[in-house]
């Protein structure tokens, strides 16, 4: 298995056309899982959606689970890029917390890849177990931003508080997106101060 940027592949694409095909396969897998569910989704259905032969799917991905893992890694790369761009304009650490939460909610609603992983219930175990991957990676980057731009006092407890705030923020976003607009607003109004309170002891008053 080789790695192409954000995710592992059986074979490395060597041309732009092949790279586009890999992205098309992942987009088709997202649509298949969202529409049919993980159990009913099939590689043949994914190939049909991508308008390619099923053998082309297997050229890059050995099975359905590996497709979900690749989607999750692509999600993380897209999320990190979007958050980084938006954080450049914030002027307070609370606004930075809002950006990470709001970006996650937006991508969950608009990018079928996020929904595909959530509905399947299948993340990549390596992303959850290896230090420096997935939430740990974003938490580390966010902790460094809070320290560099907003004077956070770096420590083990601070890093744990940031990691906890990221995990809680994602859970809050998932809950809000399952509710009506009024209920979602209430949940977010109640939840944001909890995230702020986790981080406030580590930042200047």
TrEMBL record:
It comes from Kribbella kalugense. It comes from the Bacteria. Residues 19-79 form the HTH tetR-type domain. Transmembrane segments: none annotated. The keyword Transferase does not apply. Residues 42-61 bind DNA. The keyword DNA-binding applies. Keywords: DNA-binding. This is TetR family transcriptional regulator. One of its GO terms (molecular function) is DNA-binding transcription factor activity.
């Amino acid at each position: 298995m080789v790695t192409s940027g954000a995710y592992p592949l059986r074979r490395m694409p060597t041309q732009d056309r092949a790279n586009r095909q890999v992205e098309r396969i992942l987009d088709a897998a997202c649509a298949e899982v969202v529409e049919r569910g993980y159990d009913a989704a099939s590689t043949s259905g994914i190939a049909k959606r991508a308008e390619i032969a099923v053998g082309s799917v297997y050229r890059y991905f050995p099975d359905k689970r590996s497709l979900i893992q690749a989607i999750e890694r692509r999600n993380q790369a897209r999320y990190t890029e979007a958050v980084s761009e938006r954080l450049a304009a914030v002027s307070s650490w609370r606004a930075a917390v809002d950006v990470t939460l709001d970006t996650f909610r937006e991508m969950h609603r608009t990018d079928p890849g996020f929904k595909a992983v959530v509905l399947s219930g299948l993340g990549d175990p390596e992303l959850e177990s290896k230090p420096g991957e997935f939430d740990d990676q974003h938490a580390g980057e966010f902790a460094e931003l809070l320290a560099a731009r907003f004077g956070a006092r770096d420590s083990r407890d601070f890093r744990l508080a940031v990691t906890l705030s990221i995990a809680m923020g994602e859970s809050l976003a998932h809950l809000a997106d399952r509710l009506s607009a009024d209920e979602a607003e209430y949940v977010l109004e109640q939840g944001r101060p909890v995230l702020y309170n986790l981080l406030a002891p580590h930042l200047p008053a």
